[in-house]
Amino acid sequence: MERLRAALAEPAPALPADALQALLRQLGAGAIPTASAAPAAPAPLQWIRAAAGQETRLIAVEEVIYFQSNDKYTSVFLPDGESLIRTPLRQLKEQLDPQQFWQIHRGVIVAARHVAGTRTDFRGRLHVKLKGREEQLVVSRNYMDVFRQM
Predict the structure, then answer these.
(1) Helix residue ranges per DSSP H, the chain
(2) How many CB atoms are closer than 10 A to CB 76?
(3) Which candidate among 36, 39, 61, 72 keeps its CA 20 to 30 Å from the CA of 80?
(4) DSSP state of 143
């Protein structure tokens, strides 16, 4: 306790005036990061490289209707077919714009602009109807909140 009291009683060493001025200039120029500066969020994914048979295609994210997890791959459903990517759905979700893509099931992420509506079946399960497509996607209970406002 005595040593702590003695250390607290001593004045802090003074910085030379030129060192203090240099620090102030750096702060003013933004050269020293402050604790309040948050890292910028990465931009949403724009392009996807996908396998379609023996060829690899470059797909614009805005073309995607929905993503569906299939074992080690993720299927990318497009207006003109389907392609496979190796990126897991969980990792893909982090890269997509949440305003444009909604996760509706543990294994499905749908593009909001392709949702035509929803319907409830006799068991109470919610199904998403897609614009211009026959298939309807089941919404799991964990993700029904997305459609409560509809």
Answers:
(1) 2-9, 17-29, 89-95
(2) 25
(3) 72
(4) G
**pLDDT, averaged across the chain:** 84
Question: Could you tell me the sign of the dihedral formed by the alpha carbons of 128, 130, 136, 140, in that order?
Answer: negative
Helices then strands, each counted (H, E), the chain: 3, 10
**pTM, full prediction:** 0.69
The residues pairing with 27 across neighbouring beta strands, listed in sequence order, are none
Find out whether 33 and 40 touch, Cβ atoms under 8 Å: no
- If phi over 0 gives left and psi between -120 and 50 gives alpha, with beta otherwise, what is residue 27? alpha
Q: What percent of the chain has pLDDT over 70?
A: 83
* Closest of 57, 70, 134, 78 to residue 108, by C-alpha: 70
* Predicted local distance difference test score (pLDDT) of residue 12: 66
